[in-house]
Amino acid sequence: MTSFQDFGLADPISRALREENYLTPTPIQAQTIPLVLAGRDVVGIAQTGTGKTAAFALPILHRILANRIKPQPKSCRVLVLSPTRELSGQILESFNAYGRHMRLTSTLAIGGVPMGRQVRSLMPGVEILVATPGRLLDLVQSNGLKLNQVEFLVLDEADRMLDMGFINDIRKIVAKLPVRRQTLFFSATMPKDIAELADTMLREPARVAVTPVASTVERINQRVLQVDHSAKATVLAELLRQEAVGRALVFTRTKHGADKVVKGLARAGITADAIHGNKSQNHRERVLAAFRTGAIRTLVATDIAARGIDVDGVSHVVNFDLPNVPETYVHRIGRTARAGADGTAISLVAGAEELGYLRDIEKLIRMALPKEDRRTPGQRDTAPPAAHRGGGRPAPRAHAGRANGAGEGPKGPRRKHRRGGNNDASKFNRNEVNRQQPNRPSQSGGTAEGLQGVSFLYRESRPKTQPNRNQRPR
Length: 474
Hints:
Layout: H1 11-19, H2 27-37, E1 42-45, H3 52-66, E2 76-81, H4 85-98, E3 106-109, H5 115-122, E4 126-131, H6 133-141, E5 152-155, H7 158-163, H8 167-175, E6 182-187, H9 192-201, E7 206-209, E8 220-226, H10 232-242, E9 248-252, H11 255-267, E10 273-275, H12 281-293, E11 298-302, H13 303-306, E12 316-319, H14 326-333, E13 343-349, H15 351-365, E14 371-373, H16 432-436, H17 452-461
Parallel strand pairs: 1-6, 1-7, 2-4, 2-5, 3-4, 5-6, 8-13, 8-14, 9-11, 9-12, 10-11, 12-13
Helix pairs in contact: 2-3, 3-4, 6-8, 14-15
Pfam family, one: DEAD
Enzyme class: hydrolase
GO cellular component, one term: cytosol
């Protein structure tokens, strides 16, 4: 297919596409749209930015228009699940844009906002519902939503939902859906757990794969700066001053780390803001809007919060913390060099641990990244830790629990810190690493996570001289 007109989409949809200046379909669209129009279940392997939202939204809208019926109260005809609030919002915007001439009924169900408004919007029934799994289950359990009328189920970013601990929520949701439905399953990667989940949900699915995960955009200038850990904040500030930055997206591994980077940049006289799971939905939307318009030129984000950030004009991606999963590096740097522009990806690497992560990344992308050594003489680590020698992974972590309604990762037992003071590190949630670091299957079948950051923070936040008040006096 060389044109959207070749798909034979309904006239209201074709008009909307012309208004959006959609002319030539992307590879994922060219392969997926005919299959969905034919009623097939589909497993699509595609990264963010390949056009997969239109690949499932356009044929679904066409099929809804061909059989237009009024949805029943508290129900929906199309259910789209995504891992984050931002991505959910962008998916709904796309449905509304493509269906602007259809008088489409649609709504959003995400965490971080009052549930009452969502309950009221679902009362008469809607055709399109885009939701995060946790909030969707909250609505079902409160009798605000029924799933027995769903005709189309879409799982977007399935691998990220698995990483965030949504697997149990997804199974509960699927168990409440009609057996006779069309299911579309999209994921950037297809590890064993994701493949098994797809097999239980889909019927004889067609498989579509585009943009292999190891590919990186050729227009991205990638380089590595080897620095001392204590100098990362200073080096970042220097980069943002010296580079010709249009918009810079800085990635950290944790929410606590994102806030710390913003404060460090502020001390250096650089305006920046952060988005992550601890920020309110209004704050996240406001900051993201400012980043799109250029009012904020530097945005600090965690991997989970960054899912759904589709902003043209990102000239630089900076890995303040190198990811411990190689595929995540590819997803991160793919935020730049969009719409035919050039881009720069800079990684700050400190210590033997991150050198091990770097070697895994270079192995995945099949290229050695140019390196500049800015470390203090005498502090230079050259050998990766034992866990990384021979391509190994960090030790596996415990399985993630149920994810929350905000689409921000698994819930865990709350721990009250009885220590005084206002130390940010003392408030650090032990589940932070669950929410911000994606799982990776290990050779032994477990999941791989770097937990060194968590233990470090806890050592910093609990002085050795302070007694443990949870122990009973003897």
